[in-house]
Amino acid sequence: xxxxxxxxxxxxxxxxxxxxxxxxxxxxxxxxxxxxxxxxxxxxxxxxxxxxxxxxxxxxxxxxxxxxxxxxxxxxxxxxxxxxxxxxxxxxxxxxxxxxxxxxxxxxxxxxxxxxxxxxxxxxxxxxxxxxxxxxxxxxxxxxxxxxxxxxxxxxxxxxxxxxxxxxxxxxxxxxxxxxxxxxxxxxxxxxxxxxxxxxxxxxxxxxxxxxxxxxxxxxxxxxxxxxxxxxxxxxxxxxxxxxxxxxxxxxxxxxxxxxxxxxxxxxxxxxxxxxxxxxxxxxxxxxxxxxxxxxxxxxxxxxxxxxxxxxxxxxxxxxxxxxxxxxxxxxxxxxxxxxxxxxxxxxxxxxxxxxxxxxxxxxxxxxxxxxxxxxxxxxxxxxxxxxxxxxxxxxxxxxxxxxxxxxxxxxxxxxxxxxxxxxxxxxxxxxxxxxxxxxxxxxxxxxxxxxxxxxxxxxxxxxxxxxxxxxxxxxxxxxxxxxxxxxxxxxxxxxxxxxxxxxxxxxxxxxxxxxxxxxxxxxxxxxxxxxxxxxxxxxxxxxxxxxxxxxxxxxxxxxxxxxxxxxxxxxxxxxxxxxxxxxxxxxxxxxxxxxxxxxxxxxxxxxxxxxxxxxxxxxxxxxxxxxxxxxxxxxxxxxxxxxxxxxxxxxxxxxxxxxxxxxxxxxxxxxxxxxxxxx
Length: 680
Fold this sequence. Notes:
There is one protein chain. By secondary structure, this protein is mostly helical. Helix content is 71%, strand content 0%. The protein has helices spanning 2-29, 43-48, 50-108, 125-136, 141-151, 161-184, 188-195, 205-234, 238-250, 260-286, 291-301, 310-334, 338-345, 356-372, 380-395, 404-431, 436-446, 456-486, 491-501, 511-542, 546-553, 563-594, 598-605, 615-638. The chain is extended, with a radius of gyration of 61 Å.
C-alpha cells in the first residue's frame, strides 16, 4: 500500500508540472494552444494489468515530446540572441588583429636582394643603386666613378634622389681623398684628372674646385721651374740645374716640391750618363783602329740610360762605331781571316742590322765563350737562358755558311752543357727536400756528369755541399741530445753531454760546432768545481786573512776556467799585504822628513823595493826630499857665515839609530805565487 501511494504522488507531481509548463508556453505565445492531452491512468488502473500500465506510460511519453522540443527551441533562440553581438565583435577584433600582424610582418620582412652579378640594364633603379653602393664599398676608383655615372643625372623628383645624393657626397669624398694621396705622392697631374671627374652636382663641388685651384697653381709653378731645369740638363749646365733644384726646395709649397726627388735623381743620372758617354768616346779615340777598344767603347755607350738626354748621342756613336767594325769584319772575311773576324764580331752592337754571313759570325763568336765558360757565378736558370739562346742561334747557321764546319763542334759542346744543366736541375730539385735519402739521390744524379763534361766542376761543388748537408743531418741528433743533457747544468750531465758530442768524428760538418760546445761545457764543469775554492778565498780575504786567501786561490790550476779570476784576486790581495807592510816604513820616513832629517827619511823610504805596491809613491817622496836637501845645502853654502868644515861631521848615532831590518823568513806552507805576478 505504501508503494502504491508513492506512485500516485509521483504521478500527481508530474501532472502539475506539466500543466504549469503548458500555461507558460501558452502565455509566451500569446494564444491558447490546443493540446490533446490524453488522460493519464491512475495507479489503481495501472495495477489491473502490467501490460496496460506499460502501454500507458509509453503513450504518455509520446504525448510530452512536442512540448519538450518547443521549450528547447525557445532557449536556443534566446541564447543565440544573447551571443550574437559578442560574436560579431569578436570576429571584427580577430580580423583587425590579423590584418595588423600581416602588415607588421610585411613591413619588417626585407625585400629580396638584387643579384648584382646578373644585373640587367632594364633592372629597377633600386637594384642599380644597391649594387652601386655595394661595389663602391671596395674603395676602388673604377667602382666610385661607376656609381657617380649612374646617379649623377637623376633629377630631384626621382624617388631615390635623397638616397642617391647621400651616395654622391660619400663617393665624391672618397675620390677626393684618393686624389689627395696622388698629389702627396707627386702625381699632381693624376690628382687633378681624378678630381675633375667628380660631377658638378656633388654636394662637395665647391671644396673640389678649391683644391683643384691650389693643385693647378702648384702644378704651374712646378712646371715652370721644371722646364728651366730640363733646359739646363740638356745643355749640361749642371750648376744652373742644381741651383734651380735648390730654389725649388726652398719654396714653401709642398706641391711644387713633389718632384724634388725625381729631379735630383735625374740630375745624378744625366751627369753619370754624360760621364759614361765621355769615357766611351775617350776609349774609342785612344785607339780608333783597334777593334777591341772600339768594342769596349760600344759596350760603354750602350750603358747610357735610355731616359737620359745623352742616350740619343750615345746611340749615334754606337751606330758609327758599329759600322766601322762591320766594315772591318767584311774586309777580314774577304781575306779569309776567320779568327780576326770572330774577334771583331764580338764587339758589334746588338742593335746593328747585319748581313746573313756577318750575323752567323756574330752568333758563332758569342756562343764560343758560353761553350768554354762553366758559368759558376750564375744560377741554373740564367745558364739555361743563355745556353738556349746560343743553341737557337748556332742551329740557324746554314750548311752553306763558311762558319758551318767550326759551328758543328761548338753546337755539340753547347748541347752537352744543356744536358748537364738538365741533370743539375733535376738533382737540385731532388735535393731541395733536404732529406738524407733525397740528398743521396741528388748526388747519384749529379755523378752522372762525368769529368769530361763542361759542368763537371759545378757538379762537384754541389756534390760536396750535399755531402756536407748529409753529415749535418746524420750528426745533428747527437749534438741535440748532448745539448739536452747539458741543459740541466750538473757535472754528471755535462760530462755525459761531452761524451755524446765527441761521437762526431773529426772532419765531419758539425765537428767544429761540437768542439765549441765541448769547450763550453768543460768550462762549466771547471767553474762548478773551482767556484767553492774561489768563494772560500774571497771569504777569507773579507776576514783580512789575506795569506790564507792567497793559499786557497792558488789551488786553482792554470788552464782552468776560473784561473784568471783567481790570479786577479791573488794580485789584489798581494798588493794589500805589501801595502800594509810598507805603509809603516813610508809613514816613518815622512815623520823623519817633517823633523828635517831628510837623509834619514830618504834612506828609510829607499827600503821599499821596486816591485812593491808603494814603490812609486816612495820614489816620489824620495825625489821631493832630495830636492829639499839639495836646496838646503845650496842655501847654506851661499850664506856668508857658512864655513866649509875641515873634516866631515862625525856620525852621531844618538841622532838616528835605525833599527836593523829583520831577515825575511817565508811562512810555513807559503803559497807559490803565480809567475805572472811579482813576488811580495
